[in-house]
Amino acid sequence: MPGEKQSAVQYYVGVDVGSASVRAALVDGFGTVVAHSERPIQIWEPRPDHYEQSSADIWAACCSVTKEVVRGVDASHIRGLGFDATCSLVVVDKQFQPLAVNSEGQNHRNVIMWMDHRAVSQVQHINATQHRVLNYVGGTMSVEMQPPKLLWIKENLPESWEKVGYFFDLPDFLSWKATGVTARSLCTVVCKWTYTSDRGWDDSFWKMIGLEDLMEDKYEKIGSHVLSPGEAVGRGLTPEAARDLGLPEGIAVAASLIDAHAGGLGVIGADVKGHNLPCENQPITSRLAMICGTSSCHMGVSETPIFVPGVWGPYFSAMVPGLWLNEGGQSATGKLIDHVVRGHVAFPELEAKAAASAHSIYTYLNSHLDLIKKSLPVGFLTVDLHVWPDFHGNRSPLTDLTLKGMVVGLTLSRGLDELALIYLATIQAIALGTRHILEVMQAAGHDISTLFLCGGLSKNPLFVQMHADITGKPVVLSKEVESVLVGAAILGACASGDFASIQEAMAKMGRIGRVVQPNHEHKRFYDKKYEVFLKLVEHQREYRSIMNSL
């Protein structure tokens, strides 16, 4: 916690709602995380591909962690509050009470999570329309966006649909809870709901997909008032929310961001002078922010709109004001690594040995790879082992949620060596997927020279080095590991008026910690791995075509 010497510093609170936990941080004007707290939140999986949460549970966790980080701090020095969250769908009635998103009628389970894939037939129907709004999502809408989920509710839960007062993206629900204002963030409605900054809502789209009832009262249910990220919402924190959060009444509350976009904000604008990076003295458009957690997002910005097949966007001012955003992504990265490692027969042995050495399982695996590599570079251990990582479908750049994961090169071995190798091959596959996204973005007109990584996976040195080696680009890690929380705090700092712009706050509060350079001597090996990687999906489509001919 901050000491007496720091008490004159101005502070900002950032709150981040991830898939499985809520975190808060107290951040100063130089981007230093002074205090940090985390609390888990519940996930229900009532059936395959259905993932639900509770908005009440999420808000209670927000209150708990925020109270924790500001305990003992002079309230007069807390200037602003910013939220980010997953792009999950929150459903409430006309009195703002939770409404069930499930056939069991459990009203407290009123959130359809971002990773929920229940609306497959609905998204297929939407994509079949070939409506012009699809041009802004890479040509194909994802099942993880909100329109297919809305359509699923209308078709499957008519009772809930009739009672709905408001549909919120989770980041907007949080700013409403804090301020009592139903304004939406430009980030959420542009990236996940088909709103455009120049035309607003497109009536013809909602009519074409059968959701014209959302047009009532100037789209009141999904957002009739839209603010730019970082813009102050209403009159600030309400008395009730101030009590809940342990913060001063009336402090500035910012229009929110999706969690990945907050991570981008926390890293992409950092001052890189003196680090000998190719992006030094180049515009911010030469940088790609990667937010790597349960899933991964790849954020690139441009001065003019770039339409990239299979990559979401371009979205104007959705992350950095005045710039267009393209967003690639992988639906399962951290979740995939956990799935592969914990599902292996040697996992109990790994768990026991890691505990005995007082290391995390991933630190232990990285050390074990160093032991078995002998004279080879670690990455070369997978010369005969290859993974296609789309165990939860492909978000970018193939936009095919029906794709499945693949592993080629398995043997009958069941020991810790084999677990370490499949772990390595999975990390490489994720990095090869990033290379695939990068190549498509660059072919469309992006010119990216440097990767900026944040999120939980950026703490894993093997994950970082494989991304540098496989893409051939240097990787910048921020000084503060919790870049998403710094991004949320940047929003609060802007809403407070302490910074003239988000760009100014990004440069001041986003700081470089370490740079990881690619090993160019390994280029030929990873070029060959990439050839195999692309062949895997080609073969998957071939054998599916054969089986579909039955």
TrEMBL record:
Gene Ontology MF annotations: D-ribulokinase activity
GO CC entries: cytoplasm
Zinc found in the keyword field: no
Coiled coil: none
UniProt KW keywords: Kinase, Transferase
Domain Carbohydrate kinase FGGY C-terminal as annotated: residue spans: 288-495
Carbohydrate kinase FGGY N-terminal domain segment(s): 11-266
GO biological process, any: pentose metabolic process
Matches recorded under Pfam families: FGGY_C, FGGY_N
InterPro entries linked to this entry: ATPase_NBD, Carb_kinase_FGGY, FGGY_C, FGGY_N, FGGY_RbtK-like
Family listed: Belongs to the FGGY kinase family.
Official protein name in the record: FGGY carbohydrate kinase domain-containing protein
Organism: Sterrhoptilus dennistouni
Lineage of the organism: Eukaryota, Metazoa, Chordata, Craniata, Vertebrata
Primary gene name: Fggy
